[in-house]
Design brief:
Strand order of the largest sheet: 1-2-3-4-5-6-7-8
Structural class: alpha/beta
Bound molecules: zinc ion
Strand content: 5-15%
Number of domains: 1
CATH superfamily: Metal-dependent hydrolases
CATH topology: TIM Barrel
Shape: globular
Order of helices and strands: EHEHEHEHEHEHEHEHH
Radius of gyration: 17 Å
Number of strands: 8
CATH class: Alpha Beta
Distance between the termini: 33 Å
Length: about 280
């Protein structure tokens, strides 16, 4: 079955992982800018990283027939450094016209400091100025509820924000209701050991329904599974869910959300005359 992995840090994965994803039906993925596992020495490092995300990874993905898209930002783990944030934010606009750039992400909060909130706001300004869709990271563990609430409240205070153009990721049982209830898209990230298992993700979908929810592997350099999405689909099937529901969550929902960027070019055939076409630019926020 075809699927789209909406959150996969392929810059830290091997060619074998790309191949596994292709063999299990992945047709496209999006690779949000994130932390390297260590703090980068300077803003200039981000030029190399953005080059990798916009030029190198699309070619690696294309070798196995997968379309590679990306999101640009300074990630939340380094966002507390305001001098670095200002320097990196200045660099981003020149990359926004690259063919595989969908928007700004994954921005958000990590330890929920004042500086992180300021950098989050700067990214929202950048997204508004360039009419970008946004992918948002929420803090893990004990900070998740507080961080998700603060993110939702910040977005709600901002008159420029259309919640339908924002996906708030790493949702869990105690945060998904706040996200969906306020009109945002919710992302559930599937991990092999910690955080959300396929079983818990399906419990949430059974409770909240399949609308405005996407699942992804969020695979990176840590313990994670690039084929988490097809494993989720297998678990859905085991529970007796309809193929239409499975396809909606792993393929059609990501297309609906991502097609709000005019650069996303998957699934036009699926959309009828009323659907979004790749060439139709979003009509403002
Ligand atoms: Zn991530």
């Amino acid at each position: 079955m075809e699927y789209i992995d909406l959150h996969a840090h392929m810059a830290s994965r091997t060619t074998d992982d790309y191949e596994q994803m292709a063999l299990t039906g992945c047709v496209a993925l999006t690779d949000p800018a994130f932390w390297a596992g260590f703090d980068r020495a300077s803003a200039d490092s981000f030029d190399d990283y953005f080059h990798q995300l916009t030029e190198v990874e699309p070619k690696r993905a294309a070798r196995v027939g997968i379309r590679h898209y990306t999101w640009l930002c300074l990630n939340p783990k380094e966002a507390d450094n305001r001098a670095l944030a200002r320097a990196v934010l200045e660099k981003i606009p020149k990359y926004l016209d690259r063919a595989n750039v969908l928007g700004i992400g994954e921005i958000g909060l990590n330890r929920i400091t004042r500086n992180e909130v300021a950098t989050f706001q700067d990214h929202l300004d950048l997204a508004a100025a360039h009419r970008q869709i946004v992918l948002i990271h929420t803090p893990h563990l004990e900070d998740k509820y507080k961080g998700t609430r603060l993110i939702v409240e910040t977005l709600q205070r901002d008159g420029r924000i259309d919640p339908g153009r924002i996906l708030i990721d790493h949702a869990e049982e105690h945060t998904i209701g706040i996200i969906l209830g306020n009109g945002f898209w919710a992302g559930i990230t599937l991990y092999p050991q910690t955080k959300v298992s396929p079983q818990r993700a399906i419990d949430m979908i059974e409770r909240f329904g399949p609308d405005r929810i996407c699942v992804s592997s969020a695979c990176d350099w840590g313990p994670s599974l690039p084929i988490a999405v097809p494993r989720f689909a297998l678990e859905m099937r085991r529970r007796g869910h309809d193929e239409k529901w499975i396809r909606k969550i792993i393929y059609e929902n990501p297309i609906t959300f991502l097609s709000q960027s005019p650069r996303f070019l998957i699934g036009q055939k699926m959309n009828d005359g009323n659907g979004r076409k790749a060439q139709s630019a979003p009509s403002g926020r």
